[in-house]
């Protein structure tokens, strides 16, 4: 009764008040009050919907209706329509605060028109408990939505209109720092992908089930498959894209809340984003120069329907939440380049609370607007917790055209329910003028009708009456995988440019490529329509083919200057071709014209290879002095060449750089440092030409800086200060601000101006932030005025927590005429909302510099380094001036001091120099240190240094005391100073308990050093007693510490890899630590805390006494001619000339600093010790392997072995071919398909098995094709040459890993896999298959799972599913079927009905899943490995006596979390005959191309992991290499191929076909 009452009241309210009409009349509209929109916090009171409706102004003939309002919906943030014409609305009361996990209160509502009168009379709350659902897309029986932190698929499985199932498609994506953009603008494309915007200031990692992975920072766009299988980045850049829309031509336009209101998105294009670099090809040209009066643009709608008058068609509408308007732009075209022409605003509202956050074109031809109705909308201008923020009000508005010329069919307001439309009716809608309706019909044809629509679609692509019908029919066929080359070629030559344009776009998405398609696309490059030409270039960009290079070069020559988008598309396509080295090399051999060479040079900037670098250098040499090569162009070419050129050609960069950009100091410095770094990375010494270049450059850099006129100086250790154009609150735009943002928001700095006479008044502008908006304002960021004489702060101001510069006025009359300076302080270390910027000082007593302070710092430090390294005596005075200058920053002063020390100085001064930029040292002390360089009297400097050291040692932390002591001890004079400091009570005697330090003192031949040390330390407890006590404490505490291996690994990488290596990672200075776990935990703890106790002689420290008296300690690394290279405690290499060494001695002290671990927090120590203890090294195996590549081409991803011709020798089968043993002669089984190089292609063979299917005593071949396609068996022709007869097993095999095993212990193998009904994705069923009486007919399907239903596939049956296996999980002696989501329990009597499924989380996308008792508890555990990421793991079955199967649980344990990636196939066999089953797997070669997955570019190693069982029954696995570069596919074969009784391995993948034969040596 209550439910009925609520529904009744709701219905009355909806019908009674939600659709109040208001007709706009522009001529009679009343002017708005004086600028009510100028403030971020609206000063007016909220209005009721009825009151607000009267405040709208619209063009004549348009009316606005209230669709719904509070309290029926919460604040709307996103809208979308479904095939039934229902409006889906995401509402948020949480925004702008993300709720805690599981505490979200946001909802999705569905609005329906149940009476077909055009009015939404029913609202259903479809989903609750969401967390800022800022993007949504209705899909099938539910909705795909982003709710922090996941992209979810919410489904209504029981038809009650409410979500009852949640599936994570992608996520977690990370916790957002800023909830403004998040993942928004969910929009389905023609191609079936879902396109998404990624918002400002957030970092997200998004992974698909197929292993695809992208990492996004701030503004970007990407696309995903709706089944969760794949993610791809679409564009790079923008600041805060919010909302997107497709045009009829297939282009995408997105709105942006921080940069240009509109951008046209080009695939792989880069867009400006707060200084982020582009890809070498430049940014995509913007489509507009205007800004619609604000940067607060949200939502975008593109109108194609015929309800609106002609002038409003092909217009783009965007919401402007600051001006409370709907802005309008008309798309104009310059060739294929879009231009958004600003039109009169479509809608204005004099109620400043109107906040249009989303705009959508409905299937009824009306424009819908989501109104976030609020006093405050700004994110940064107003605190997030401001009490004025409204959390309850929100409206949906609908704008219709009802003028006298309204088409009759529009006035009926009817929306057809496409969810029940027939194929014929849906195809008819493809001719509709309204793109929204066409797209909804397209989705229904592909998602609901599926392949059943193919015959009618085949007719539709030939429908000459409607170009849009042909276009959408093409796309549906493409989505279904049923389009043919003939259909594409016909479309590519269609009479209508719209069809030709889309034909090119379909080809760009097609995985297939052929000479015929290439010719069709090349013809498209010459099409009369520029949009077709641009789409043709886009198609070439997605297919590598050397024969497309010249057509692209020809096309570039004919592109009009104004058609920037066509030029960008052709350059992107050319770049993609040249990324293949063979293609670039081939192109260089062509007789290129000057124009073609210039085009290739400009594109080569986007090609990161030595081939591209060689081309650029040759181009610059050939064209030196040509007016076409501007300095900036030469800079880009040379920088690129310096990074990627071969070593032997590096000097060419020097020659060309000095000739090409003689006046660009920063460029030359950048190039010199790049060349130096390149040489260091490659282990090459600097050449004479580079040294001379450095000398000249250092002179010019130092001469270019005059410290007497420098305006600003940074006094922090870091220098974040750069120059950035920003806007000011008075409307002035693009003024250069002095900003800390560019250096990184977590960086700090204190910038001080030169002194000036205080004016009567001082005005300037400031912007920036004081911490996260939800937090209290920090006082660490500020600008202040100090009097020079007293340093008194007389004025201070904090940034306004806004990106917009706000004016500051200081009345300084009381200080007028006195000397003062301005300080800008960034003291915040958080990574967001922690910057400030200033500009526009008036009067200009100080000014924003022309060169950024950070850039000046880089110049000076680099120049100082060059002076010291090259021993440039003539520049010593200039360095002294830098040390003494108080306006260059501490880091510059230290670098200059250290360079001066390279010319010779007292050891005390050398030690003190290291403190100059240490923030923990008092500023006065640092200034005093720098002042030492004001004298040329060495005795005076030495005496003053001792006095300063006395002060320093009493005040600085222990870390710095040790640092100073070690430096002092390296010479006898310095050692005397150190002992004197201790003897006088100015330094701690504990410093002398460092054994290495004492040995260094002794090596300096300091008189009575040992006796003096003994006297000074005699009253201290012995260091070994202290260490012994610490070892006992840490050993006893380890057991209860719960160490974390991942954290231990992180600590190892941070603190140890400078000297130690594990599994090839880290430097080899100290001993490699592979297998250190064999020492045992007790020894590891000893070695960490007392590194010299057990140090190996090979790693004992050497002490070198130089002629100068200086002592150098370290490990001998190598000899280079007459130079010794030693490594110090930091892992840094030091070069010593042999003739400088006076004496050399060995020490028994480890180079490892004694305090590096002992001063760690205890938990960090335990984590590190645990990680090291987990590293176990083993003895070499007696198993050896010999690998042969029998075919270097990409044939398949699966392979099988059998004696095909019954000659007694086992042959290899890979789908279309079999290789006859012993010479591996190829024979065709079927016509051979060219699979390309695998970089962007796949095979139609994912697995191969052999069996005598037809019982004729000859082995037949079973081939599992590309996921979702049919699987077949090929009938052996019984030694008759020719193609084998092909028989279909089943029409659909969905898994990437299928199983062909003896499931029932009968001796007969069966095929286990998921499958889908024809044309219906995501309705998979798990089943086993066996041939019937007539094996040439389709095999019999026996269900394991329930039958899949729409959107409800059985676990592990989605197309491209990973992870499948069989094994006895519950110990009933019957093999169960396992997938990543759980396992099906085999019943005692197998009948044609579903098996019981037990849910279990058995890992992410994985390979074959096998069972084994890993931990010796008698229960079956599960072993598997990652298909597209790193990782090999096992899942422990939790044993509980008397348990039921439903109670079985699993706990994951990582075996090898980061050894090898893409382990897409796995076997579990006893390789070495010791009775234990070993793991055999390896890296799939280019699963998704050379960059598609983590570790894609690493060697494709094949491993076997030797099983070892300890006394407790626990199994461990030892990685052993079979071959370094053959890799596995999606399936490989193991068995005895050569009859020697040993298991061999055969693989086939994108690197070719390989055979690895095992042999064994006798055990010693």
What class do helices, strands and sheet pairing give?
alpha+beta
Number of helices: 35
Low-confidence stretches: 1-34
Radius of gyration from the alpha-carbon trace, in angstroms: 37 Å
Fraction in beta strands: 25-35%
How would you describe this structure in keywords?
6-stranded antiparallel sheet, alpha+beta, globular, disordered N terminus, 1564 residues
What does this protein structure show overall?
The protein is α+β, with helices and mostly antiparallel strands and 1564 residues long. The protein is 25% helix and 27% strand. The chain is built from 35 helices and 75 strands. Strands 2, 22, 23, 24, 25 and 26 form a six-stranded antiparallel sheet that branches. Strands 30, 33, 34, 36, 37 and 39 form a six-stranded antiparallel sheet that branches. It has a five-stranded antiparallel sheet with strand order 1-3-29-28-27. A hairpin with a 5-residue loop joins strand 18 and strand 19. Helix 8 runs parallel beside helix 10 and helix 17 runs parallel beside helix 19. The protein is globular and about 100 Å long. The chain starts with a helix and ends with a strand.
Secondary structure blueprint with pairings:
Blueprint: H1 2-17, E1 21-23, H2 49-53, E2 56-57, E3 62-69, E4 76-81, E5 87-91, E6 106-112, E7 122-130, E8 135-139, E9 142-147, E10 150-155, E11 165-170, E12 183-188, E13 194-198, E14 203-207, E15 213-217, E16 220-224, E17 231-237, E18 241-246, E19 252-256, E20 262-265, E21 270-271, E22 297-303, E23 315-320, E24 325-334, E25 337-342, E26 347-349, E27 356-361, E28 367-371, E29 395-401, H3 408-411, H4 423-429, H5 435-449, H6 454-460, H7 467-480, H8 485-492, H9 497-509, H10 515-524, H11 530-541, H12 549-558, H13 564-578, H14 581-588, H15 594-604, H16 610-622, H17 631-644, H18 650-660, H19 665-681, H20 688-703, E30 712-714, E31 722-726, E32 735-739, E33 749-753, E34 756-757, E35 761-768, E36 781-787, E37 793-797, E38 802-811, E39 819-826, E40 836-842, H21 853-870, H22 876-884, H23 890-901, H24 907-913, H25 923-931, H26 938-953, H27 958-968, H28 972-983, H29 995-1003, H30 1009-1017, H31 1023-1038, H32 1045-1055, E41 1061-1062, E42 1065-1066, H33 1081-1089, E43 1100-1106, E44 1111-1120, E45 1123-1127, E46 1133-1137, E47 1141-1150, ...
Parallel strand pairs: 17-21
Antiparallel strand pairs: 1-3, 2-26, 3-29, 4-5, 5-6, 6-7, 8-9, 9-10, 10-11, 12-13, 13-16, 14-15, 16-17, 18-19, 19-20, 22-23, 23-24, 24-25, 24-26, 27-28, 28-29, 30-33, 31-32, 32-40, 33-39, 34-39, 35-38, 35-40, 36-37, 36-39, 41-42, 43-44, 43-47, 44-45, 45-46, 48-75, 49-50, 50-51, 51-52, 53-54, ...
Helix pairs in contact: 4-5, 5-7, 6-7, 7-9, 8-9, 8-10, 9-11, 10-11, 11-13, 12-13, 12-15, 13-15, 15-16, 16-17, 17-18, 17-19, 18-19, 19-20, 20-21, 21-23, 22-23, 24-27, 31-33, 32-35, 33-35
């Amino acid at each position: 009764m209550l439910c009925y009452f609520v529904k009744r009241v709701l219905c009355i309210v909806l019908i009674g008040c939600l659709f109040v009409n208001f007709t706009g009349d522009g001529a009679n509209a009343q002017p708005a009050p004086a600028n009510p929109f100028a403030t971020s916090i609206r000063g007016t009171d909220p209005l009721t919907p009825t009151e607000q409706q009267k405040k709208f102004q619209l063009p004549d003939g348009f009316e606005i209706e209230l669709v719904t309002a509070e309290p029926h919906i919460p604040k709307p943030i996103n809208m979308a329509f479904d095939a039934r014409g229902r409006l889906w609305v995401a509402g948020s009361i949480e925004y702008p605060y993300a709720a805690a996990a599981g505490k979200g209160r946001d909802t999705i509502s569905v609005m329906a028109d149940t009476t077909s009168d055009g009015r939404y009379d029913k609202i259903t709350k479809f989903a609750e408990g969401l967390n800022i659902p800022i993007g949504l897309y209705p899909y099938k029986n539910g909705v795909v939505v982003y709710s922090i932190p996941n992209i979810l698929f919410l489904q209504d499985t029981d038809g009650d209109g409410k979500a009852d199932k949640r599936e994570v498609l992608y996520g977690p994506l990370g916790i957002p720092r800023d909830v403004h953009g998040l993942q928004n603008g969910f929009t389905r494309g023609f191609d079936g992908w879902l396109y998404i915007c990624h918002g400002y200031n957030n970092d997200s990692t998004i992974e698909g089930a197929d292993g695809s992975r992208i990492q996004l920072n701030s503004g970007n766009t990407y696309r995903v498959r709706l089944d969760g299988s794949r993610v791809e980045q679409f564009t790079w850049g923008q600041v805060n894209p919010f909302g997107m829309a497709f045009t009829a031509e297939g282009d995408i336009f997105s709105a942006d809340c921080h940069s240009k209101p509109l951008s046209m998105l080009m695939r792989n294009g880069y867009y400006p984003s707060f200084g982020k670099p582009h890809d070498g090809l430049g940014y995509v040209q913007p489509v507009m120069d205007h800004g619609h009066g604000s940067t607060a643009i949200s939502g975008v709608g593109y109108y194609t329907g015929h309800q609106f008058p002609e002038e409003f068609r092909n217009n783009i509408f965007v919401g402007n939440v600051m001006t409370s308007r709907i802005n309008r732009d008309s798309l104009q075209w310059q060739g294929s380049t879009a231009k958004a022409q600003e039109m009169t605003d479509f809608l204005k509202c004099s109620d400043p609370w109107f906040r249009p956050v989303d705009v959508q074109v409905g299937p009824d031809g009306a424009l819908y607007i989501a109104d976030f109705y609020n006093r405050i909308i700004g994110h940064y201008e107003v605190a997030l917790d401001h009490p004025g923020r409204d959390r309850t009000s929100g409206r949906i508005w609908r704008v219709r055209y009802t003028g006298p010329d309204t088409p009759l069919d529009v006035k009926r307001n009817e929306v057809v329910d496409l969810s029940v439309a027939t194929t014929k009716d849906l195809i008819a809608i493809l001719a509709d003028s309204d793109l929204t309706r066409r797209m909804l019909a397209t989705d229904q044809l592909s998602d609901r009708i599926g392949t059943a629509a193919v015959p009618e679609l085949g007719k539709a692509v030939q429908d000459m009456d409607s170009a849009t019908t042909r276009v959408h029919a093409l796309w549906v066929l493409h989505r279904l995988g049923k389009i043919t080359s003939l259909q594409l070629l016909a479309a590519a030559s269609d009479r209508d440019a719209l069809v030709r344009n889309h034909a090119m776009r379909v080809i760009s998405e097609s995985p297939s490529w052929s000479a015929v398609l290439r010719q069709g696309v090349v013809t498209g490059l010459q099409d009369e329509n520029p949009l077709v030409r641009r789409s043709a270039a886009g198609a070439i960009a997605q297919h590598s083919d050397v024969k497309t290079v010249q057509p692209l070069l020809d096309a570039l020559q004919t592109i009009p200057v104004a058609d920037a988008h066509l030029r960008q598309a052709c350059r992107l396509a050319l770049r993609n071709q040249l990324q293949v080295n063979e293609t670039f090399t081939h192109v260089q051999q062509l007789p290129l014209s000057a124009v073609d060479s210039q085009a290739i040079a400009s594109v080569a900037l986007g090609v990161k290879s030595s081939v591209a670098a060689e081309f650029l250098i040759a181009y610059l040499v050939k064209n030196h002095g040509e007016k076409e090569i501007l300095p900036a162009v030469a800079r880009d070419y040379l920088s690129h060449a310096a990074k990627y050129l071969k070593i032997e050609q590096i000097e060419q960069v020097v020659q060309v750089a000095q000739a090409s950009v003689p006046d660009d100091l920063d460029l030359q410095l950048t190039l010199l440092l790049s060349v130096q770094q390149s040489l260091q990375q490659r282990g090459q010494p600097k050449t004479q030409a580079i040294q001379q270049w450095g000398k000249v450059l250092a002179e010019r850099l130092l001469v270019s800086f005059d410290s007497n006129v420098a305006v600003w100086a940074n006094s922090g250790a870091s220098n974040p200060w750069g120059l950035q154009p920003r806007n000011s609150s008075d409307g002035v735009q693009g003024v250069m601000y002095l900003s800390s943002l560019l250096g990184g928001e977590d960086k700090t700095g204190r910038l001080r101006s030169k002194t000036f006479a205080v004016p009567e008044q001082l005005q300037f502008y400031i912007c920036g932030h004081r911490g996260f908006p939800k937090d209290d304002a920090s006082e660490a960021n500020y600008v202040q005025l100090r009097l020079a004489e007293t340093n008194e702060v007389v004025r201070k101001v904090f940034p306004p927590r806004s990106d917009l510069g706000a004016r500051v006025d200081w009345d300084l009359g009381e200080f007028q005429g006195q000397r003062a300076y301005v300080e800008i302080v960034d003291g915040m270390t958080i990574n967001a909302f922690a910057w400030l910027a200033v500009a526009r000082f008036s009067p200009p007593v100080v000014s924003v510099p022309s060169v950024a302070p950070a850039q000046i710092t880089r110049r000076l430090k680099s120049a100082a380094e060059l002076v010291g390294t090259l021993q440039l005596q003539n520049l010593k005075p200039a360095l002294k001036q830098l040390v003494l200058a108080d306006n260059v920053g501490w880091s510059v002063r230290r670098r200059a001091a250290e360079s001066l020390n390279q010319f010779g100085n007292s050891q005390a001064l050398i030690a003190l120099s290291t403190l100059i930029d240490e923030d923990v040292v008092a500023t006065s002390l640092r200034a005093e240190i720098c002042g030492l360089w004001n004298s040329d009297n060495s005795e005076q400097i030495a005496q003053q240094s001792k006095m300063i050291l006395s002060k320093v040692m009493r005040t600085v932390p222990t870390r710095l005391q040790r640092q100073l002591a070690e430096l002092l001890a390296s010479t006898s004079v310095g050692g005397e100073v150190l002992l004197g400091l201790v003897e006088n009570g100015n330094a701690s005697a504990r410093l002398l308990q460092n054994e290495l330090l004492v040995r260094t003192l002794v090596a300096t031949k300091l008189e009575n050093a040992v006796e003096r040390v003994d006297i000074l330390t005699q009253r201290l407890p012995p260091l070994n007693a202290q260490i012994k006590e610490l070892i006992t404490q840490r050993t006893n505490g380890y057991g209860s510490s719960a160490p974390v291996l991942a954290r231990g690994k992180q600590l190892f990488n941070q603190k140890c890899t400078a000297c130690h290596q594990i599994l090839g990672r880290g430097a080899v200075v100290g001993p490699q630590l592979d297998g250190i776990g064999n020492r045992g935990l007790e020894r590891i703890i000893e070695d960490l805390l007392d590194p010299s106790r057990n140090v190996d002689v090979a790693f004992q420290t050497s002490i070198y006494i130089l002629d100068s008296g200086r002592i150098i300690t370290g490990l001998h690394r190598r000899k280079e001619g007459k130079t010794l290279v030693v490594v110090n405690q930091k892992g840094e290499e030091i070069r010593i000339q042999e003739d400088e060494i006076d004496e050399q001695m060995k020490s028994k002290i480890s180079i490892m600093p004694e305090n590096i671990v002992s001063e760690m927090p205890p938990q960090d120590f335990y984590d590190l010790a645990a990680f090291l203890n987990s590293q176990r090294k083993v003895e070499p195996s007696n198993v050896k392997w010999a690998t042969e590549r029998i075919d270097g081409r990409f044939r398949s991803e699966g392979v099988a072995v059998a004696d095909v011709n019954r000659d007694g020798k086992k042959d290899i089968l890979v789908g279309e071919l079999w290789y006859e043993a012993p010479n591996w002669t190829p024979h065709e089984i079927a016509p051979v398909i060219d699979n390309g190089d695998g970089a962007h292609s796949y095979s139609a063979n994912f697995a191969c098995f052999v069996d005598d299917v037809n019982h004729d005593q000859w082995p037949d071949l079973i081939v599992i094709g590309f996921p979702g396609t049919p699987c077949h068996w090929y009938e052996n022709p019984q030694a008759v040459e020719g193609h084998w007869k092909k028989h279909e097993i089943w029409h659909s095999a969905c898994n990437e890993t299928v199983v062909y095993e003896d499931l029932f212990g009968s001796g007969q193998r069966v095929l286990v896999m998921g499958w889908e009904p024809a044309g219906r994705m995501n309705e998979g069923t798990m089943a086993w298959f066996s041939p019937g009486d007539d094996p040439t007919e389709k095999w019999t399907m026996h269900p394991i799972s329930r039958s899949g239903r729409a959107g409800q596939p059985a676990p592990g049956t989605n197309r491209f599913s990973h992870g499948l296996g069989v094994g006895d999980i519950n110990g009933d002696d019957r093999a169960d079927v396992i997938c990543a989501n759980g396992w099906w329990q085999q019943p005692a009597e197998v009948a044609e009905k579903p098996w019981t499924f037990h849910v279990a989380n058995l890992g992410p996308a994985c390979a074959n899943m096998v069972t084994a008792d890993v931990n010796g508890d008698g229960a079956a555990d599960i072993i598997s490995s990652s298909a597209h990421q790193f990782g090999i793991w096992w899942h422990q079955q939790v044993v509980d006596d008397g348990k039921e199967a439903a109670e079985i649980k699993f706990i994951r344990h990582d075996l090898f979390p980061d050894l090898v990636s893409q382990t897409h196939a796995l076997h579990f066999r006893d390789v070495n005959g010791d009775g234990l089953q070993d793991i055999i797997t390896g890296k799939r070669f280019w699963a998704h191309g050379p960059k598609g997955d983590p570790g894609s570019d690493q060697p494709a190693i094949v491993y076997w992991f030797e099983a070892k069982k300890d006394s407790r029954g626990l199994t461990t696995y030892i990685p052993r290499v079979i071959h370094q570069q053959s890799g596995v596919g999606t399936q490989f074969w193991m068995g005895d191929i050569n009859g020697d009784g040993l298991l061999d391995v055969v693989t086939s993948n994108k690197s070719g076909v390989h055979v690895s034969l095992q042999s064994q040596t006798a055990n010693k």
